[in-house]
Amino acid sequence: MAEATVLVEWFEDLRRGDVPRVGGKNASLGELIGALAPRGVQVPPGFATTADAYWRFVEHNGLRDVVSGALAKHEAGRLSLAEAGRHIRRAFLAGDWPDDLASAIRAAYAELSRRAGAGEVDVAVRSSATAEDLPDASFAGQQESFLNIRGADALIDACRRCYASLFTDRAISYRRAKGFDSLKVALSIGVQRMVRSDLGGSGVMFTIDTETGFDKVVLINAAWGLGENVVQGTVDPDEYQVFKPLLADPALVPIVEKRIGAKAQKMIYAAEGDGRTTRNVPTSRAEREDYVLGDDEILALARWAGTIEQHYGLPMDVEWAKDGATGELFVVQARPETVQSRRGSEGFATYRIRSKGRTLATGLSIGDAVVAGRVCVIEDAGDIGRFVDGAVLVTRTTDPDWVPIMKRAAAIVTDHGGRTSHAAIVSRELGLPAIVGTGDATRVLHGEQEVTVSCAEGDQGFVYDGRADYERVPLDLGDIPATRTKVMLNLANPAAAYRWWRLPADGVGLARMEFVVANLVKVHPMALVRFDGLRDETARQAIADLTAGYDDKTEYFVDRLARGLARIAAARFPDPVIVRMSDFKTNEYANLLGGAEFEPKEENPMIGFRGASRYYSPRYREGFALECRAIRRLREAMGFTNVVVMIPFCRSAKEADRVLEVMAENGLRRGQNGLEVYVMCEIPSNVILAEAFARRFDGFSIGSNDLTQLTLGVDRDSAELAELFDEQDEAVKWMIRNVIVEAHKAGAKVGLCGQAPSDHPAFAEFLVECGIDSISVSPDSFAAVKQRVAAAETAAGP
Ligand code: PEP
Ligand code: MG
């Protein structure tokens, strides 16, 4: 006797390989439930009807002849597509259920309701088409779904409509175009417990960073209501990022990003009890101002994402939903992520120019890329709305207000600024070519003009007329040699930190906290501490808006700063990440929201109230306490124990003692919980009294920018004196050589994090000869420096 035909299968009994029997969608749900439910991942339970069940329905109602007859007439031009489709669908909708099939579906539904502990459970009824001979064919999205179905009769009716939907006009013409025989395609029906995300929320998560392919974070998007809006990108969802390697410890909360989205609308059912149609409604103010998920839920989803990725052995794209009625979370779909995982490390390259137009402007080159595009001149931050995506941004200068359009530019050209200017540092991290300090770009270039921006020709950058003929030569990371000297990265923009994760760096040698404050916090810490007493009404209002959702204003500073730094720490974990406490100058602090009230006016801010001197001063002490709180959160609550603290601009040993004391008062005691504290070596006194500093700190990082300025007495920002600002001057080299020797005698480590080796790779050779322990460079010059270091090490012998 032939084996009994299986008409209905429980999801947990299905696997990936069952596509021919139940279609791709149901097979993948089966895989999810079968393999992952035992590991704690919740997937709404359910069952599927098989392809055999479909054929049973077709035979029982004599539908083969109906289908072939109508399609033949359509082919012959006697029926329009619409007429043929309607004819076939009517026949399906009028069909009777074979007794055994109807009772199998009813019995499974009764069992599903019993398992859910409900009289009659709400279900989603979805179509999953399958071509037996072509199991890989994708029919996704072609057939209908019916949501929110309750009761066996309603279910049976929805199943019939699912079958009929195999013959929507669109599905018929799709199969015809692809050469599939409509009589060889079957339909499996998935019946799954309904997740009431219309009352809760839903979204998508990826097990890698979708921008860069960084594989240590889970990215979660979340919006209120049904998931459609997030999938289609019609709402601006919340975004959370979780760092995977620290998820295993239940005491840690490694949520490295929590950005609230506008979530202007949510999708719900058009009418109660009618799951077929949905509509968007505006969200309430409370919904817009609140996160869709709490921390525990974010962590739970991220853990599931990790489990799913592990099971499939691939980066995955996962849909999730939260039932607003029960508060439960579910995974509802999982498929391999395709964009980033295929891209590999293609982002790295060098450039060669074959022929080019007239030189229109020159300045300092930042980065090493060549880009052609149309000019968009914007002179005032108030006009940034006019920026055209993908254009070459030409401007006088930039500050944090410009970052949103800088991110969307093909290249950046400024009139003013040097290698350590905002435009230069931000472009470098965004991986964009920039030419800074041209003097006249905003005057000589004009909107819509086609130009080529070249940073591939050494120190000088060129803007050429028209589109140059150039070539991009990808850089093979495998060609970067290993070195004894550690080569680290200077990173300060959390939004761009993951971009460089593939570089074989030994950690972050300098993360400038003030950049993170300027980018993500935007408010002067003292203006948060003393918010109630603020005199500047405009600043007060702006701060109130920014800190909406934080009961305690100082918490806003700590939260934003800790998460921003966390992304930099995550990018290189577990290698050391040296976070330097804030080193704004007073004029820069004054530019932060509410800052003017707290900063003295100075004639020479560069040698004024900056660095260590602020931290113990009554003027700033409470602000520094917030910086310390952020570091503690980063190390203790999130788990980034790879974070090392660094003190900038420390003029004397006495100052060092006072700072270390204030840090200890704020819970950051050197040596406790493995905390290391470094000091910048950027003032001649740091070199002269190296031994005294070495006793107080775990290491030095040479700031060649300030050390050159203060050794030669040359203002580092002066265009007039640019020629005199030379880090390779013998006096500066003497300083560097000496501090390395003295520090090593005292048992302290020495690195260098100034701009010099990034701009002059030969400088790296000098540092290696001096026996430096580490060199930290901007990411775009990493490969060149690494090569120089390797060569110098070889020349020096073992
Ligand atoms: C330096 O002075 O070399 C340095 C790295 O610090 P900053 O450029 O931030 O002053
Ligand atoms: Mg400095």
How would you portray this structure in words?
This protein is of the alpha/beta class and 798 residues long. It has four domains: 192 residues, Dna Ligase, domain 1 (2-Layer Sandwich); 133 residues, ATP-grasp fold, B domain (D-amino Acid Aminotransferase, Chain A, domain 1), CATH 3.30.470.20; 131 residues, 3-Layer(bba) Sandwich (Glucose Oxidase, domain 1); 169 residues, TIM Barrel (Alpha-Beta Barrel), CATH 3.20.20. It is built from 29 helices and 30 strands. An eight-stranded parallel β-barrel has the order 23-24-25-26-27-28-29-30, surrounded by five helices. A seven-stranded mixed beta barrel has the order 15-19-18-17-16-20-21. Strands 9-8-7-6-12-13 form a six-stranded antiparallel beta sheet. Helix 5 packs across helix 6. The site of phosphoenolpyruvate has 11 residues, from strand 24 and helix 25. The site of magnesium ion (MG) has 5 residues, from helix 25.
